């Protein structure tokens, strides 16, 4: 295990954190101190000048604008080191969620490397003194336990979830000139952002597990926006992954880690490399309240449950029943949002809502309360409904090939609502909301019994056949066939954590299986037949606010069966851009979001 040498830098960090608190509104002084403090850490660093750059738009929270623009590459490196330490400091009070979804690969003659099995973990990172994490998934079904039996000893340690969190920073303790050499490579655009590219190598005797690779530094504040490489030298009996780590400019002055892609494996002829996998890690929920300990119970905002229909009459028993269900529904949705599992109401919900309305209107459904939709931020393919709210996971929206497939998914949950299969009314009792974020999966569950599932499937088929999607069910049926075919190797992706899964524990398709028996046959060689998309293709997540929106990618022509990659993990290539300067768009630009909360 990599040791965290905290003693060396503890003093520096404590100083910086004290400064950050004092100087929240007198940033130019604290910036100067930050620059000097970091400068004093390494003897080779020329003392950063503290002269304020009057010409630059002084952003109260952008720490680096208070120093003169660097004139040499050495000064750029110094500045990026300062910025890296400022980022670590800013994130110290944050406890974002981190999710890693990993697919082990095998070689398929026709399709190339395809998933053979998969693994999933979800936890909360503590970016304080040492990067630490707590699991959302309970210990017994955790990845580690299952894995330790199944994977050769040699790779045991590297697969630990923690390993995927490392590349949040290049080097948590010693990112400086004393431990690293920096070599300028070139200028390059990443999306809209012009970057300076440096190769970074650990110095001789810098110790084990140092960053080795390349960094991209944006040319305004000189923050690192991308890291690509591994750690070296490796300790005995262990190996570090290769990783590509991306940051986004989500708050003024900082680029926060959001995506990490990892890949190992060599399928060339005669390759000895036995380990082969691809993994996506996503980090979000930076702005969530720090919580999680059993004694820090999340407080409920009681005022959020409003009686929107002030009435002079008393509630009838049926009205009382409906209000009770509404209260449960509001409680659950709010609690899931607080624990970072459900995104705030937003743009994607409007799309889902439109499809739901199409089903409702064409089927003449009359419900006492409107149906709402929300997006669960996690990757596993699942849906559930609580009261009149339908929740669909981000991973599921990602892989759905078209609107009719989305309608197919939503129709099943709408059917539960229409049939009155109301779950979760026990959550109208507020004591049932009082649990730690990490134990959400132990406290919530919205699984229907098999009878209700069968009834919902039958009703869903009826809803679809009366809808504008009635003539477009070939693609949804192909989706279910593809899912059915891939299911045995995608157990983790198909394991629902709150709702119902598409498959049973034997990996057989159970959801809407009648639809899978109709329509055209699945054929990988038909290039115009797209049954399911790769992971991560549709929904873009703001790692700071947890807001989701649809990506705007242009369609790319498929040239071989290998291009289809249904349900597969692919690298990240987010389009980088700077945060829009107008601070009042409802986005995470308000100063209150950027100041450390305690
Ligand atoms: Zn169901």
What report would you give on this structure?
- With about 600 residues, the chain is of the alpha+beta class.
- Strand 14 and strand 15 form a beta hairpin.
- The protein starts with 5 loop residues before the first helix and ends with a helix.
- The chain contains 14 helices and 15 strands.
- The strands form three sheets. Strands 3-2-1-10-9-8-7-6-5-4 form a ten-stranded antiparallel sheet. A three-stranded mixed sheet has the order 11-13-12, sandwiched between helices.
- About 45% of the residues are buried.
- The radius of gyration is 25 Å and the shape is globular.
- It has helices spanning about 5-20, 25-40, 75-90, 145-150, 160-165, 315-340, 345-360, 395-400, 405-420, 440-445, 450-465, 475-485, 515, 590-595; strands at about 95-110, 110-125, 130-135, 180-190, 195-200, 210-220, 225-230, 245-250, 255-265, 275-285, 370-375, 385, 390-395, 540, 550.
- Bound molecules: zinc ion.
- Zinc ion binds near residues 416, 453 and 500.
- Zinc ion binds near residues 412, 416, 448, 456 and 500.
């Amino acid at each position: 295990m990599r040791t965290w040498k905290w003693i060396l830098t503890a003093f520096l960090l404590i100083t910086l954190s004290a400064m950050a608190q004092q100087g929240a509104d007198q940033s130019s002084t604290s910036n100067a101190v930050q620059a000097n403090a970091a400068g004093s850490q390494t003897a080779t660093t020329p003392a950063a000048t503290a002269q304020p750059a009057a010409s630059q738009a002084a952003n109260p929270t952008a720490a680096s604008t208070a120093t003169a623009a660097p004139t040499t590459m050495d000064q750029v490196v110094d500045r990026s080191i300062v910025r890296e330490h400022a980022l670590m400091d800013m994130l110290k009070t944050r406890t974002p969620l981190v999710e890693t979804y990993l697919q082990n690969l095998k070689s398929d003659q026709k399709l190339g490397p395809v998933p053979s099995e998969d693994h999933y973990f979800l936890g909360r990172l503590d970016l304080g003194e040492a990067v630490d994490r707590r699991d959302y998934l309970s210990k017994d079904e955790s990845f580690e336990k299952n894995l330790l039996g199944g994977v050769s000893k040699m790779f045991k340690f590297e697969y630990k979830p923690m390993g995927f969190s490392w590349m949040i920073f290049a080097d948590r303790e010693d990112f400086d000139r004393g431990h690293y050499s920096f070599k300028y490579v070139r200028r390059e655009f990443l999306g809209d952002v012009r970057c300076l590219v440096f190769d970074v190598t650990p110095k001789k005797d810098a110790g084990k597990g140092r960053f080795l690779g390349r960094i991209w530094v944006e040319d305004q504040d000189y923050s690192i926006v991308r890291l690509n490489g591994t750690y070296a030298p490796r300790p005995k009996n262990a190996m570090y992954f290769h990783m590509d780590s991306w940051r986004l400019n989500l708050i003024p002055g900082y680029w926060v880690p959001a995506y990490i892609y990892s890949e190992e494996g060599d399928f060339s002829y005669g390759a000895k490399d036995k380990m082969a996998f691809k993994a996506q890690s996503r980090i979000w929920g930076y702005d969530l309240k720090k919580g999680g300990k059993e004694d820090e119970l999340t407080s409920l905002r009681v005022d959020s449950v409003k009686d929107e229909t002030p009435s002079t009459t008393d509630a009838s028993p049926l009205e009382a029943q409906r209000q009770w269900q509404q209260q449960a529904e509001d409680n659950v949705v709010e609690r899931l949002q607080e624990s970072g599992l459900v995104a705030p109401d937003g743009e994607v919900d409007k799309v889902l809502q439109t499809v739901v309305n199409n089903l409702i209107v064409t089927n003449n459904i009359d419900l006492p309360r409107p149906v709402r939709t929300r997006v669960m931020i996690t990757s596993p393919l699942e849906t559930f409904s609580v009261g009149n709210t339908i929740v669909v996971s981000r991973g599921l929206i990602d892989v759905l090939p078209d609107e009719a497939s989305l309608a197919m998914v939503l129709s099943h949950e709408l059917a539960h609502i229409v049939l009155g299969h109301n779950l979760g009314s026990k959550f109208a009792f507020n004591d049932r909301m009082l649990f730690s974020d990490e134990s959400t999966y132990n406290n919530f569950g919205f699984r229907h019994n098999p009878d209700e599932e069968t009834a919902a499937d039958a009703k869903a088929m009826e809803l679809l056949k009366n809808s504008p999607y009635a003539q477009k069910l070939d693609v949804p049926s192909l989706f279910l066939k593809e899912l059915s075919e891939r299911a045995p190797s995608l157990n983790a992706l198909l394991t629902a954590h709150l709702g119902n899964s598409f498959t049973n524990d034997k990996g057989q398709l159970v959801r809407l299986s009648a639809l899978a028996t109709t329509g055209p046959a699945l054929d990988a060689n038909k290039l115009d037949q797209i049954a399911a998309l790769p992971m991560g293709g549709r929904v873009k997540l703001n790692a700071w606010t947890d807001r989701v929106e649809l990506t705007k990618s242009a369609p790319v022509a498929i040239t071989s069966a290998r291009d289809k990659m249904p349900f597969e993990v692919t690298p990240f290539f987010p389009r980088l851009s700077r945060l829009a300067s107008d601070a009042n768009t409802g986005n995470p630009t308000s100063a209150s979001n950027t100041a450390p909360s305690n």
